[in-house]
Design a protein that fits this description.
Length: 285
């Protein structure tokens, strides 16, 4: 039995390294195909480790930060192979913290990534609005270049707690739920142990709307940049940390439908929201 476990672990390791190699190759190929217009964020996109073009958006934004510290924080890192900051960790050798609530995924992330970048820490922690002190003590910088949040649930409340705890990321990447539409300022009620349920209709009930994110972040001095074309992530920046001419010229995309949800439900956000409109929501003022 011990030998079987060792063989299984070895095969998992090999598979992870293969996935990393594929991600690096994909990123190199897709990044070279871009024709970048600095005013049009959709032209920035490419995917290596990220799922929806985020690697490219981050890449362009990073090149216009005035004083980068080459540090990231990612909450919801999973096993590290499909997230928003692995390109930074591996290709650009950034330091940072991968935070993941699933102990198995976090352990595997540590096992695979530690030899690739000793400047990255791996933390198994289910982040809530109540453990910001612990997160703050883990981080080397309170103003990381990139802060990515993807926990499919209490994202709004965790982001608010992050900012209230004194974090001031230069680039703040948040996942939005396109089923809530482009104008409703909504999120789910806070539940400390919330986890999205992967069943019909229930997997539409999570997170925060794009308008809700703007209601939270704009009063705190953040500028909305864009969403990516697949309708999953939104990008905000602290404009004081970027070249003003670059910031003022950006013409981002304000809303995109989540392609995965559109494929699964064969409807647009109106019909998707109709499936969950009887659920409880919190209106963000």
């Amino acid at each position: 039995m011990i030998m079987v476990r060792k063989i299984f672990r070895y095969m998992q390791h090999v598979r992870s390294l293969q996935r990393i190699g594929m991600a690096l190759s994909r990123g190199a190929a897709t990044s070279s195909l871009r024709t970048i217009d600095l005013a049009e964020p959709l032209t920035w996109e490419f995917s290596g480790f990220s799922q929806n073009g985020e690697d490219g958006v981050i890449d362009v934004l990073m090149r216009h930060i005035i004083q980068p510290n080459y540090y990231f924080i990612e909450i919801g890192a999973s096993d590290g192979i499909e997230n928003n900051t692995s390109w930074l960790a591996i290709s650009r050798r950034f330091g940072g913290v991968f935070v993941e609530g699933n102990p198995i995924a976090s352990q595997w992330c540590r096992y695979v990534f530690t030899p690739l970048n000793y400047g990255v820490e791996f933390v198994n922690m289910f982040v809530t609005q109540d453990n910001m002190t612990e997160l703050r003590n883990l981080a080397r910088y309170s103003n990381p270049d990139v802060f990515s949040l993807d926990i499919d649930g209490n994202d709004y409340y965790v982001a608010k707690a992050v900012l209230d705890a004194g974090f001031r990321p230069k680039i703040f990447i948040v996942e939005y739920n396109s089923a809530f539409g482009p104008t409703q300022s909504l999120t789910i009620p806070y539940k400390k142990d919330f986890q999205v349920v992967q069943s019909y209709k229930d997997n539409l009930y999570y997170g925060c709307s794009i308008a809700g994110w703007q209601k939270l972040l704009s009063p705190r001095g953040y500028k909305f940049v864009t969403v990516e074309r697949n309708g999953v992530n939104a990008f905000f920046i602290d404009p004081t940390t970027f070249e003003s001419s670059f910031v003022e010229a950006i013409r981002g995309k304000s809303f995109s439908e989540n392609v995965s949800q559109a494929r699964e439900y064969k409807t647009d956000w109106h019909q998707q929201f109709a499936l969950i409109q009887d659920r409880e929501f919190f209106n963000i003022d």
